[in-house]
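Reading a protein record of the kind used here takes only a little practice. These numbers are not coordinates but entries in a learned vocabulary of local backbone shapes. Here is one such record, which you should read through line by line.
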Amino acid sequence: MISKFAPEHDINYTAFEKVGIEGHIIIAGGSGISGKTMAVNFFAQQFKALGCTIISVLDMKKTKLEMGFVAFEPKNQKHTKRLEEFGLTPRKYEIKKYHLLNDNIPKTKISETNFFTIPIKHLDDTLIRFILNNPDSEDSIDVIKSIIKKMKPSDSMGEFFYLLGKEVERNKINKKHTRIFSKKSETFGLNIGQAERFHLKTIARAFAMFRNEGIVFTPLNYPLNLDFEKILNDHHSYHIFFDSYLRDEKIKFFRILYTIQRLNEEISESKKPVVIILEEVTDVFRPGNNDWRDVLNRKLTAIISNLRSQGNGVLVIGTTQVWNKLDKSVRDIFSQPMLGRTNSPGDKTMIAKIYGGEIGNRLSSLQTGQFIMILPSKIPGKVPFKTVGIPVTRHSHPEPGMNFEKLWSKNYPKKVFTYKKMISAFKKDTEEWAKNINRRITKEVEKREKHIELARKKREAEMERKQKTESQTMTLGSLARQSKEEIKKLAITECLNQYEEKGDVVWRPIALRLGVHPSTLKSWFTEYQKEIKLRGESKKFIYEEIGDEEKDEKVQSEKEVELVEIKEV
């Protein structure tokens, strides 16, 4: 546990007393007059000297990157003079910067940065609720969780939407899914035109913010994913997360939530105490309207409250310019308030109400760098406090007009890079993922079309069989209504026709068709042969006798009548 604030081992800070740290620290004060940024940096410097890992998770300042100035030695004369008064020399510290990979990264040279990606399988219940904007969208949440659970470690955002299309559209896939990574496809290539596709619409619209920023969730083993265990155990560098190249505010807070969640999940692997810095927590803990802000507030409050007892000790240091806008539940998780100078009537009124009028009245008279530290109370109704002064840091401090990127280029000319190759390689990877999905979809479509064709042929064969059966049933039914004599005439006609065409008679097919036994048919025809042979009648007479009106016209119109010579069968 981090239980003691002590000076750096080779520094004697006589202006700052050794005090016990009993909980997370919140440093409040007006902008530009309180010195809260210097106070945060001083605390970080001191804890780093004790071997703690320093991680700055939140820096909503778009360009200043205030924590990053620890990488430079101070040049301001007042700053260096104050160091001389304490017998200290300026110094700088190693930093590692982290930024979520997106398509808004400058194409020019910038300071060394670790651009990182987020695995699709890291999207848990909290992050999904945050993305969907409605924490109560249980059906959509269940769909997403179910799909992510089915995904392999090697699957990316592409497979997610491919499987989503299959899940919600009941396996009705098509080649439009190949547009998953295209900004032109507002729905990630999914068919969501019909009303019953409500969940698909909700999910596609929620994920659209990532598509608009060019953010792609990656496989679990992708090389640009962050190793948080490694970060937690690197106490030699300051670790700074920033969002300067992100445009969408919600994605910035998503990145913050993701980072804190991952640190919380891996904190047990840390071999050193950890100090997490959240600057301007008021920007994070804003009231929501049953939306993603409520998800963010609840989760961060729960994590920060629980962090102190985790691993080898975790201390969270937060800052705010506006004390009265912090919800009580947020103020309560920071049990060690440090109140700096403020001219805000609302802040002074709120602080006086909470801690007493004496403290509220002192806020305007504090000097820059002076803070009222609220101490644990042993007497009910009485709030003990102590006024402390924060010395300057040994490293540089951001001043008006200072530009981090320019200072970095000047101090570290060999550590400025363009990230075109990295971005190009990432785009190729996303293209390859899309091709893999395309090949997968093509196989699925071909397989489905083959099944459809087989099913069609099967249906046609079944229909043909059914029609044939119905035809035969109708024929048999018709024959059943005919007299025996009519059936006999029809049977002899068919036998005679077959005999003339082929020189022989196959009894069984004709017998089955007419519904008589083959031996009966043969008997009828043999009897007829004998009768005709005795009578010597003509072919024409024969047809008229048996009543075959459908005999071939060519045979019926023959002018010459030939006698039929019947051979014994």
Residues 420-481 form the longest helix (62 residues). The chain has three domains: 4-117+224-418, 120-212+442-481, 483-556. Residues 1-20, 170-183, 538-569 have pLDDT under 50 and may be disordered. The radius of gyration is 44 Å.
